[in-house]
Write a structure and sequence with these properties.
Length: about 100
């Protein structure tokens, strides 16, 4: 629950260093960790490393609507799932 925007971004950068990764699926329940902070971290990291991989994020919890809006308006190759099943179907479709 004590993750900062910078820590979220660092975790995302670590994932993106693996060249075998074809897409990224993020499933977060932001009970303690605010979803807008998570969204900022994802946007920051993906922008910094010029990520072109498909990203699907399923989030729920504190500030979820703000987080979803930030991701949708980020200009990144990111989709936001409404629930776990929807998000899983989205990443499978994006990876074709």
């Amino acid at each position: 629950g004590g993750a900062t925007r910078e820590k979220v971004a660092e975790a995302f950068r670590i994932i993106l260093q693996d060249h075998d990764v074809k897409g990224i699926f993020v499933n977060i329940f932001g009970g303690i960790m605010r979803c807008d902070v998570i969204a900022h971290g994802i946007i920051e990291a993906a922008s910094e490393v010029h990520c072109t991989l498909p990203i699907v994020v399923r989030m729920d919890g504190s500030e979820v609507e703000v987080g979803k809006k930030l991701l949708r308006e980020s200009g990144l190759n990111v989709q936001v799932g409404d629930n776990l099943g929807d998000a899983a179907a989205r990443i499978v479709k994006m990876l074709g």
